Amino acid sequence: MLTSVDTDLMRVLADPLRLRIVTLLAQETLCTTHLVEETGAKQTNLSNHLRVLREAGIVETEPCGRFTYYRLRADVIASLAGQFADLAESARTAAGNKRSCP
After folding, report:
1. Taking the model in full, what pTM does it have?
2. Fewer CB within 10 Å, N- or C-terminus of the chain?
């Protein structure tokens, strides 16, 4: 069963722009400037979304001069994917179970 922490991660990833950021970071480590170019979002809006992702532990930062690079924490995504896989397996196993009505 998914825990409240997992629910929080799902909420964070449910935002379309944050999901786009995560998708981009799955391909390469990028700085804010790259993410602004790729998403078309305003820098302040993007920074707010990156803060949410960082606080949720989904991305980590790497300072590089005056720029900050963002990297996806694959272990967090893999853990969430594993929990969904467990949930799917539970659903497969329980497919024949049906509670009778009173």
Report:
1. 0.84
2. C
Contacts of 26 (CB under 8 A, 6+ apart): 72, 74, 77
Look up residue 12 and give its two tokens: 């964070």
Cβ-contact 59, 50 below 8 angstroms: yes
**C-beta neighbour count of 59 within 10 angstroms:** 23
pLDDT digits (tens, 9 = 90+) for 30-66: 999 999 999 999 999 999 999 999 999 999 999 999 9
Encode burial over 13-37: b for 16+ CB neighbours within 10 A, e otherwise.
beeeebebbbebbeeeebbeebbbe
